[in-house]
Specification:
This protein is α/β, with parallel strands linked by helices. The chain has two domains: 3-238, Aldolase class I (TIM Barrel), CATH 3.20.20.70; 245-360, no CATH class. It is built from 14 helices and 15 strands. The chain has helices spanning 22-33, 58-68, 89-97, 112-117, 124-135, 154-165, 184-191, 199-215, 234-240, 272-276, 288-300, 309-313, 316-321, 343-355, and strands at residues 3-4, 16-17, 43-48, 72-82, 102-108, 140-147, 171-176, 220-222, 225-227, 253-257, 263-267, 282-285, 306-307, 326-328, 332-335. The strands form four sheets. It has a seven-stranded mixed sheet, covered by helices on one side. The chain has a three-stranded antiparallel sheet with strand order 10-11-12, with no helix packed on it. α1 (22-33) packs parallel to α2 (58-68). It is globular, with a radius of gyration of 21 Å.
């Protein structure tokens, strides 16, 4: 759902300010939902993300969930993202009526000055109102927070986590900031005006926060995600296991099996106008090397690691370089908690070694 009230400085998602074209978006989404890639398939999980899905009017959200509901398996996990400044009691009533059982609320920080500095429209009054609303909502609550923004401190990060726990969330996403190319934040970094913490400093803050959440009963199950036992995101766990998924909306990506074997990615047009006009998705058929890299990438995001000793057998040089931080046995390959903030560095080494393996030539 590609509409937002404002664009945050760090955001690289396909989105536009305002929801003037929401009716056209909704009309095409509902037509797509009537023509799934697996006609007899049923959905174990659905994730409505954005953008800001609560910029939809409640009646529009009702129309969307009406189209989703008939194909859900019993007990399916259904998540809807929301932002504090646009969430209303009417939205929550629609979610309850259609059996939505997870709400993912984009907090990012409880520091109002920090949010304003990065172009985010949430203010303290919005946070207070949203806290009161979700306290009465019967489903599971997940909160999103960012670690390592310009202007943050180690003490401020812990204050954010402490305040987040006062909301009594079942799940918390604690992300390390990634500066994406072309964003306003990226331009500020290149101009020397962003004032970001160093990588080592941000990694230390993240590790301190992870230990804090663990001690509060929300252990990590993935590099950025923490949940009470039983409250882990089923949708994301299936995604990280590379089970097939179907993505709808501009810039969305699907991962689908091919009739003749293997898998492909389908990436929808990024521009909303192009997507509304019916532009065909780009199709990428995965080679054995690309699939191995993707299985490694998504598997190592999880504390349980990547499945299959074969991957470890293909990476003797990388494992030697990361001895003590990367752990392998005949069934799993995983990173130690201290190495989690450096997953990207491990993957660079691992991908370079996989590129040279004769098995993939």
């Amino acid at each position: 759902m590609p509409f937002c009230r404002a664009r945050c400085s760090w955001c690289a998602f396909a989105s536009e300010v305002g929801a003037a074209r929401a009716p056209q978006w909704l009309e095409r989404i509902t037509r797509q939902l009537d023509d799934p890639p697996a006609p007899d398939g049923r959905w174990a999980s659905v994730y409505v993300g954005g953008g800001t899905p609560t910029l939809l009017e409640p009646r529009q959200l009702d129309q969307l969930l009406t189209a989703v509901a008939p194909r859900l398996v019993p007990g399916a996990e259904v998540t809807v993202e929301a932002n504090p400044e646009s969430l209303t009691a009417e939205h929550l009533a629609v979610l309850t009526r259609w059996g939505v059982n997870r709400l993912s609320l984009g907090i990012q920080s409880f520091n109002e000055d920090l949010l304003a500095r990065h172009g985010r429209p949430t203010r303290r009054t919005h946070l207070d109102a949203a806290k009161e609303l979700v306290a009465r909502w019967p489903g599971q609550l997940s909160l999103d927070l960012i670690c390592g923004l310009g202007g943050q401190t180690g003490e401020g990060q812990l204050r954010d986590l402490e305040e987040a726990l006062a909301w009594r969330p079942d799940h918390l996403s604690w992300y390390s900031l990634t500066v994406e190319a072309g964003t306003p934040l990226d331009k500020a970094v290149k101009a020397g005006t962003a004032g970001l913490p160093s990588e080592d400093e941000a990694a230390r803050w993240w590790l301190e926060g992870a230990r804090f959440l663990e001690s509060a009963g929300l252990p990590a199950y993935e590099v950025s995600n923490f949940g009470r036992p039983g409250a882990e995101s089923e949708h994301n766990r299936r995604y990280w296991a590379l089970e097939p998924w179907w993505g709808l909306g501009p810039s969305s990506v699907s991962f689908l099996p091919r009739a003749g074997g293997g898998f492909e990615y389908r990436t929808e047009a990024v521009g909303l106008g192009e997507w509304l006009a019916g532009a065909a998705p780009q199709v990428e058929v995965l080679s054995a090397l690309e699939l191995a890299k993707d299985r490694l990438l998504v598997g190592l995001r999880q504390t349980s690691g990547a499945a299959g000793g074969l991957l470890a057998d293909l990476l003797p040089q990388t494992l030697a370089r990361w001895r003590g931080r990367a752990l392998a046995d005949e069934d799993r390959l995983m990173l130690s908690p201290e190495a989690f903030p450096f997953l990207d560095a491990f993957l660079r080494d691992a991908f370079a070694e996989l590129d040279g393996r004769p098995e993939f030539r």
